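Handoff note, outgoing to incoming analyst
You'll be picking up this chain. Sequence as last confirmed:
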Amino acid sequence: MHTSWLRYGSALLTVVFLLSLMRWKLPREVSPLSVLPKNWPWLAGIGAVTFCFSSYSQYKGLSLSTSTENALIVAMEPLFAVVLAWIFLGEKLGLKQVGVFLVAITGFLLLSKVNPSDLGASFAVFNIGNLFLLLSMPSEAFYTIGSRKLAGRVTPLSVFGFSLPIGFLIFSSYLLISGQGLPDPTRLSTGSILALLWLGPLGTTITYSFWTLALVEAPVAAVALTLFVQPILGATTGMLFLGERLNLWQATGAGLILAALLLQTTMTLRQPNET
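Most recent structure output, in case you need it:
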């Protein structure tokens, strides 16, 4: 949890610097504070859900699961984005998309050690860590939904810059109330500082800002394609460097998740040609 706090803390310092710099150099790329009253529910929702609850779920999940399984569950994020877009944005959810989502959920259950031939025993060894990781996926997807909702009203960098402080404040309050306390950044080693620069300024501020910008400037289909690479590379890395392995049913579940993502991406790519 302290790693997440340091990650978001360093990302917050970075985005404050960038907003200050861009307000001076490119003022059009920074939304004024006057946009907050009309858009604060969405900005607060993004902060609380994506930058607080998601961090908690990921931490609990990774402590009880493996990096390989986490990487494969991450593949379900764009599928949750489709469902959340239907709920919050009123976008159409067809039967094919519902079918794809059910295929992914089936894959998740197999990946979590649910054996169809012995359901009773399977649920006794069900990987609860994967359930926490699954809960973090709609939380991450909520950032995409919120960014779409705010597109044209709040600039991409401002969406991140206004929502992160809210989530960081809630997350800090949780650490204090739960008795975990806040970490001491002055005790970080040189290696830890370099890792933090990768996780915070580069891996959070830059990536979230570019992701928000992509949702405005590029077709959703093109953005969704980038998510297809992450679970493959993550699972491969876990197997090669951490020696993690999947049994037959888990491998089948992983295949179903990736197949569901591929089907969803294919349907999204075909949408412009069908209209």
